[in-house]
Amino acid sequence: MSDGYHGVCAPDVPEAVRRGLDGAGPEPASVLLAAIVAVLAGVAGVAVLASGARPVGASAAVFGAAAGGGGLLVALVAAVLAVRGAVRLRRARAAERTGRYVSARALADLAERDPAAAALVARTQETVRRIRASPGALAAALDEAALRRIEWSVAEAALRLADDAERERLAAEVARLDELVRTAAELDVPRPSGAEPSVARLTDDLDRASLIATEIRRFAGSDRKSTD
User: Fold this and answer.
1) How far apart are CA 223 and CA 160, in angstroms?
2) Region of poorest pLDDT, from 2-11, 59-68, 144-153
3) Of 61 and 175, more confident
4) Which residues, 6 or more positions from 1, have their beta carbon under 8 angstroms from its beta carbon?
5) Most-buried pick from 61, 86, 168, 203 (CB within 10 A)?
6) What is the model's pLDDT at position 198?
7) How far is it, in rounded angstroms, from Cα 110 to Cα 96?
8) Would you call 142 exposed, middle or buried from its count of C-beta atoms within 10 A (0-12, 13-18, 19+)?
9) Are 105 and 29 in contact, with CB atoms under 8 Å apart?
10) What's the sign of the alpha-carbon dihedral 18, 19, 24, 30?
11) What are 102's strand-pairing partners?
12) pTM reported for the whole predicted model
């Protein structure tokens, strides 16, 4: 994960594609380093096996297997890592070009250009993470699709903010989301010891949780329009 962010897929991205894009993925420098290691280790291994050179007193077969074979094994592993990394990078970049994926790297770049906008994305991702991890009424009332829409709409809006007015509108919406989640958390506070649960109180809590979930769904569905 780049600088604490994680990549965000558009809500309509199929689950199989989403799983392939999940995670930070390799850095381009890491892929390049693996490719260089593969080439150098492969050349060294072939050179040892072809030359038959060995330390004085060492068995040619043993030294060739250990040094030459070891070098080729390192080259093979590094080549596999380089290819896998390159495939993941290409897949992520293709998804970004189609406008269906915002990578962790893109969000880290946003943090350098516009720290305030990136902070809103980080707050939203943390809020959604808390909702997913919560065993309370709000997590039960919200489905995964709504949470994904929230993450996506805020990340996409943050990347295309044009001025301070748009940033303020997005900040207000993120603050509203935080307030809704805090209010929902209050419903899950344990009752004082010895207090009997009231049917009226439980009904009121359920009604409030339902209203909060409805508000968050509305947030998820209207965020794109309100930030345009």
Assistant:
1) 13
2) 59-68
3) 175
4) 23, 24, 104
5) 86
6) 45
7) 14
8) buried
9) no
10) negative
11) 8
12) 0.62
Here the tokens at position 3 are 């600088």
Neighbours of 45 (CB within 10 A): 21
Q: Which residues of 75-103 are buried (b: 16+ CB within 10 A; e: fewer)?
A: beebbebbeebbebbeebeebbeeebbbb
Q: What is the pLDDT of residue 59?
A: 66
What is the residue type of 141? A
Q: Which residue has the higher pLDDT, 146 or 27?
A: 146
In the block, tokens 């970049």 appear at 93
CA max distance for the chain: 90
Q: Tokens 């209203």 correspond to what residue?
A: 211
- Give the span between the Cα atoms of 101 and 7, in whole angstroms: 7
Q: Tokens standing for 180?
A: 């809704």
67 near 60, Cβ under 8 Å? no
Six-digit token string for 40? 């150098």
Q: Which two three-digit tokens encode residue 47?
A: 């050179």
Q: Is the CA virtual torsion 173, 179, 185, 187 positive or negative?
A: negative
What beta strand segments (E) does 6-164 contain? 8-9, 101-102
